[in-house]
Design goal:
The structure holds two protein chains of two kinds. Chain A is of the alpha/beta class. Chain A is built from ten helices and twelve strands. Classes of the chains: A alpha/beta, B mainly alpha.
């Protein structure tokens, strides 16, 4: 038993001692994980000596790992909190550096049979928010969805500790209101789209990059009088789309040369092409 | 028998025992180790779950809220609540209904394969049924969303097809191979002489199956059904997708629900290690452990009770 343990330990040490490769640990947001992986693969061609090891786990997990010093770069779909900055300062006297690496618009989508073209933020809150009274589609301006039995709204959501869920909650309900229980809390954006595609009654939300032609993305307006805006590259970049957010990468202290080079590369045009291919919006120029 | 011969026999026996070949000792040791390892593993799992959930159980745990409230709100911005009633009901409903489908179907299938069909067809059926077991659970989940969901919506005219019925069908299909294989083995294990004797008395095939084989293989068939229950109780990914993963007590089989296992699967990945939510999920794990332990124990009791 003990011998096996030593053997495994030696193998692990053996791997990390491999001096031909410099490994940069990159961990965090599941929203960003696809993009981070696509970047890491491309970066291998640019700089074969550096391997970027990407893993998910959630924004909070990534930032916690950065504070503890176990990763070099943390991915996050939310801005770092002041307490987290303070903790990094206290724990190992390190200043956190922030990089905006892209933008993400949360699209709200319905089945193609649904005649609605847009929703106001208030209507979204009425559908999804706790205490919201919108249970049937006819509660929204008398909408009638063909093929939807009882005209009932089927809310498709995400598991409650995902970054997407928390951003959606904050953008539509503010910081002091919960989402209503009884929604279909699927565990991925892919699944949300698939379900809405097959269910006439359903409404769901996900990052813009996951949209396909089998679901209808709605335009969103801030209030009854405001213009209804579709989620596109343009509206996400200029932040006129009401549910768009920045995506971040964080490093701690003075970054090593390879981390610094990588972060600079993520702002390059080559990296931005990959960002668009992965379905995200490139970060606006500073 | 006089005293001296007894002691002589004992000495001979001692002699034999001490001169046991080493290979036998080694094998005995390995088998003993394998036996003990299962006990150690179960104990280790229990200790691990207890260790991770204990801080929650000692501080935040409120028995009434945990078991009586349907409000599972681990990430609430208003008030964090951990109520598992809806999840518990979901788990029980899905398990019971899937077994109502799978056990009769599985056992009938086992009888057919073992007793009624030709040896050639038997081999073909066995391969096909075991192929069912090789389908990964996430694929079953996609079948639930993409195929059974629209089917239920159109057939029963309901708003949503991801519900208790959908999950029960998926789970029934998933536990079927296990029930059929184990059930068929139990039937094949009934000595051929039983069948010959019954045939000699002029019994028909149907009478043999019902009056002779069913009682003779009862324990094995019961074990098959219980393995199916275990499979249904423990499944995560497929039920996560098929139930709709919705926190509510379903009012009918056409309403979505949520199970204990799926909640752990969906939320553990993104809850920070050692946090309160993480510990609460381990408390759910403890409930599941106790639940499956109770099922196994009562099954064992049932089978032994019948034997007496």
């Amino acid at each position: 038993m003990r011998n096996i343990f030593y053997l495994v330990m030696m193998m692990m040490i053996g791997c990390s001692n491999d001096d031909r490769m410099l490994i940069v640990q990159n961990k965090g947001s599941d929203t960003l994980v696809n993009l981070a992986q696509a970047w890491a693969e491309e970066y291998k061609k640019v700089n074969p000596e550096v391997a970027i090891a990407v893993s998910g786990g959630g924004s909070g997990t990534g930032i916690a790992a950065l504070i503890n010093g176990t990763v070099d770069i943390a991915n996050s779909s939310r801005a770092i909190k002041d307490e987290e900055r303070a903790e990094a300062m206290k724990n190992n006297n390190k200043v956190i550096n922030e990089f905006v690496v892209g933008m993400d618009a949360l699209a709200v989508f319905v089945h193609p049979k649904n005649p609605l073209d847009g929703l106001t933020l208030e209507e979204i809150a009425c559908i999804y928010g706790e205490g919201g009274k919108c249970v049937y589609w006819h509660d929204i301006r008398g909408t009638k969805v063909s093929g939807c039995h009882e005209n009932k709204i089927i809310r498709v959501s995400r598991q409650s500790n995902s970054g997407t869920y928390q951003y959606f909650r904050e953008a539509t309900l503010g910081k002091k209101r919960d989402l209503k229980l009884g929604s279909m809390d699927l565990n991925g954006s892919r699944e949300s789209i698939d379900l809405v595609e097959k269910t006439p009654c359903a409404v769901g939300y996900s990052g813009m990059g996951y949209l396909n032609k089998h679901v209808k993305a709605l335009c969103i307006s801030k209030n009854d009088n405001a213009e209804c805006i579709k989620p596109t590259l343009q509206t996400a970049t200029d932040k006129s789309y009401p549910i768009s957010r920045e995506l971040y990468m964080y490093t701690a202290g003075t970054p090593s040369d390879q981390v610094k080079a990588y972060m600079e590369w993520t702002q390059s045009d080559a990296a931005k092409v990959i960002t668009i291919k992965a379905g995200y919006v490139p970060a606006p120029k500073k | 028998m006089s005293n001296s011969t007894t002691s002589q026999a004992f000495l001979e026996w001692r002699q034999k025992k001490t001169t046991k070949p080493t290979s036998e000792k080694v094998i005995e040791f390995i088998i003993k180790g394998a036996g003990f390892s299962s006990i150690i593993l179960i104990a280790a799992i229990l200790i691990f779950i207890l260790k991770e959930s204990l801080p929650f159980l000692l501080s935040k745990f409120d028995f009434k809220e945990f078991f009586m409230s349907t409000e599972w709100y681990p990430a609430s911005v208003v008030k964090i609540r951990y109520g598992i009633l809806a999840l518990l009901v979901g788990t029980v409903l899905v398990t019971v209904i899937s077994m109502l489908i799978a056990v009769p179907l599985g056992l009938a299938c086992a009888f057919y394969i073992s007793e009624f069909c030709s040896p050639r067809m038997r081999e073909i059926y066995k391969i096909l049924i075991e192929f069912l077991a090789a389908i990964p659970s996430v694929v079953w989940g996609f079948i639930a969303i993409m195929m059974i969901n629209p089917l239920i919506i159109n057939t029963f005219n309901v708003p949503i097809g991801l519900n208790i019925l959908n999950a029960s069908i998926i789970l029934a299909l998933m536990s079927l191979p296990l029930i059929v294989s184990v059930g068929e083995d139990a039937l094949r294990a009934v000595p051929e002489t039983y069948r010959e004797a019954a045939e000699g008395l002029g019994a028909t095939k149907w009478e043999i199956a019902i009056r002779v084989l069913l009682p003779a293989a009862k324990n094995g068939l019961m074990a098959a059904a219980l393995l199916g229950v275990g499979r249904a109780l423990g499944e995560t990914m497929a039920v996560l997708m098929a139930t709709g993963h919705s926190i509510q007590i379903p009012q009918s089989i056409f309403e979505p629900g949520r199970t204990l296992t799926a909640t752990i699967a969906a939320e553990l990945g993104e809850s920070p290690k050692g946090g309160e939510h993480y510990q609460a999920l381990f408390a759910i794990g403890l409930v599941l452990f106790i639940l499956s332990f109770a099922v196994n124990l009562s099954a064992d009791y049932l089978i032994r009770g019948r034997r007496k």
